[in-house]
Amino acid sequence: MEAITGKITNVRFKSRNGSRLYGQNVGNFPKHHFSYLISQVPPENWALQVSFAGPDETVRGFWRARDNSDIFALEFIQSGTYEFTQNEKKYDCAPGDLFLVQLGGNSCMRTTSGYSIKKTISIAGTSLSAILNSLNLAQVDVIRSVPKRIDDIFNTIFQLMEERPEHYLHQLSVQAFHLLLELSESSGKQEYPELLNRMLSYIEGRFDSAISIDLLSRRFGVSSGTVFRLFREYLKTSPIDYIIRLRMKHARCLLLEQKCSIKDIADRVGYRNQLYFSSEFHRIYGMSPRDFRKKNITY
Q1: Distance of alpha carbon 104 from alpha carbon 62, whole angstroms
Q2: Is 108 helix (H, G, I), strand (E, B) or coil?
Q3: What is the mean pLDDT of the chain?
Q4: Contact (CB, 8 A) for 296 and 46
Q5: How far apart are CA 242 and CA 256, in angstroms?
């Protein structure tokens, strides 16, 4: 699509909670195709919830800056290119890349191609900051070449926001956590050796089944010592502890869904013994699954 020209308009929005939003529009761009969550309980009063979501069209000349941002947003590029700066770090972003507008950060997004489309999801909630920190996402600016499963979650959230089926609020909350969990896994793998990335992908697809160092050794044709060394060097943990923590991350997501019993959750993440599952959960998070659910589901 050719570059689109039009009247340049400087925009500035009123501060809120010490935040400042300003930038430049070009003609009738940006075009936001967002759905906003309107319910009796505001998104920020949930443990975790989607505030707004949808596609976003921009053109060259458009830019938007936030000082001390009062929102957390995920910007997933579909076509075109962007320059993204956050806290004085600059990134050139292309289709398949995703940049994160962090709470409290100073950021600027600028369209550098004639025409661009990105998918936007903003997430809020009383547990958002704690979840971002626990998933090591609070300091992440850009995730490169995100996998298709993340695009699928974006589309699921868009559909829920548009169609509003029964119990859609709970489904949105679960999908928001699922999205952050998947982004955490994708972010952490980007600097790893190819062999380790293949092992991690294998584990993620089978974390609910029995996986041992010996199994990984046979599967990937390397010694058990090599498997253990890769995990220790790059993940600072053992393969078994990595699997346990991956199971617990998925368990936390399921615990946000009230329809799942703790026994069912234990089974779905690979534990046939509910008591052992609860013990492992408490060892890692310092509270039982039941207490985690009570603390984080505030709606």
Answers
A1: 22
A2: strand
A3: 89
A4: no
A5: 22
